[in-house]
Amino acid sequence: MSIKHVILMYISEISGHHSATLAIEKAIKLIAPQTRILNINAFNYTNPISEKIVNCLYIGIVKRTPKVWGYLYDNIKIKKRVERFKKVIHQFNSPKLKELFERFKPDAVVCTQAFPCGMVADFKETYNADIPLVGVLTDYVPHSYWIYDTVDYYITPSEEISHRLNRKGVPLEKIKPFGIPFDPIFNEPQDKQAIIKKLDLDPNLPIILIMGGGQGLGPIKTVINSLEKLKRDIQEIVVTGSNKKLYRSLNKNSKKYKQRILAFGYINNIHELMSISEIIITKPGGITTAEALAKKLPMVIVKPLPGQEANNTQYLIEKKAAIKAEDPKRINLLIENLLEDKEKLNLMRQSAERISKPQASIDIARLVLGLS
Fold this sequence. Notes:
The N and C termini lie close together (12 Å). The chain is an alpha/beta fold. The chain has 2 domains: 5-180 and 359-369, 3-Layer(aba) Sandwich (Rossmann fold), CATH 3.40.50; 186-355, Rossmann fold. The protein is built from 16 helices and 12 strands. It is elongated. The strands form 2 sheets. Strands 2-1-3-4-5-6 form a 6-stranded parallel β-sheet, sandwiched between helices. It has a 6-stranded parallel β-sheet with strand order 9-8-7-10-11-12, sandwiched between helices.
């Protein structure tokens, strides 16, 4: 059996798109360890200077004017306006892709973000290339920037999203509702008591996990201040991601809070933290959502971004796996009610388990390895 060559493409180092490619890479290695894999930041590879500019613009928009992002996201008028500009960028990138593909000779290319997917799709059309191309959606919305005739397969988070993608013109035979890929380690059982002991936490008090994605965005401090009003004692684990300012502030002022607060920066043991938590308060990024569902962890959603996060929120609420906190300043009331209502928490756990796709990464890996 020949050794397969697979290229995985994402954009932005600290992102769910990158986490997704890492999860697929790990799954492929579990099935076929000899596989040669190139896991690359497609934007940085083709336009390193532009990548820095676009990332700064994106972070600036979502932090300061999220409604602008909501307007741009999956807007058909905007998509049509940028179509010619996008074609020029893809033509500029084609020689770099041609050199990459000729050198690495991939048996398949897998993209976890629409930009590199479109780039490779246009390359296939321009050069009449027959490289199998797989687009992996990492949010519960099949936006129009994904749609290309030369994509061989689309991986969707659920059957409902598959039908929505089909209504946008993608044939059903091209769509696989395998789920959002996440690290297979989230499926492994954890010794909860050992983790609690390692973190020096009280096994008799509820643990609330608070996250704001890889960038540590959202009203995390507002949430923490609101939880100070709880009538009961809890323990809070706060993951700040790359938000160093927030991490330093929490560590510096931790003793000022009534509740016990344990702050972490960018870490690789989220699976342990989710295993010991009663509830997660978070922004509903696709990867975080998939991980929490796999852990059967009830979600309380705060300040979702317009666009993909708003769609993720709507899906999770409809499926009864999450609750949205309309006012972060009053989230203490919501958490108080949840902690008192064990039946409600159990129903949320059951709902999470029902819609989770724990084998997503493995299923995607099997598909990719069988494409040639």
